[in-house]
Amino acid sequence: xxxxxxxxxxxxxxxxxxxxxxxxxxxxxxxxxxxxxxxxxxxxxxxxxxxxxxxxxxxxxxxxxxxxxxxxxxxxxxxxxxxxxxxxxxxxxxxxxxxxxxxxxxxxxxxxxxxxxxxxxxxxxxxxxxxxxxxxxxxxxxxxxxxxxxxxxxxxxxxx
Length: 160
Prior knowledge:
mainly beta; Immunoglobulin-like; 4-stranded antiparallel β-sheet; 3-stranded antiparallel β-sheet
C-alpha cells in the first residue's frame, strides 16, 4: 500500500485512523495555555467538568483591551453563557446534534457536540464593568477594556 509519497506504508500503520497534524499541534499549543505557562496570570486554569469538546479560542491584548474570540459554529446565541468572576472569564454553552436524521446515512461524524466550557484567568487591570460581547456568524467576541491606570502613558523627559 502506498501513501502517495512513493514510500510503502508499513503494515502496522495501515489500519490506524489518519491524524490531522495541525489539529494535534493546536491541541498541544492549547495545553501550554491551559497549564499556565503562556497565560496572563500564574494561576490560570481551564476546567472541563461537563465538557465534551472545547471550542478554539484566541486571546490577545491591545493597548486598550483584552479580547477573547471563540469559534462556535452552529451554536445558537441562546445556548452560550459568558460570566466573569474573580478575574476568570468563563464561556460555556452547548452545540446540539441534529435530532432529525431519518434520511441521512452518516459515514463519519468528526465534529464534536454537547456541552463545552472554556475559562481564562485575566489580569487584574481589566475593567469587568465594561465587558462587551458580540456573537456573529458562529464567532463570539468578548472585549474587556483595561482600567485607565493600566493603559500606557507617554512620560515627558525633562532636562535641567
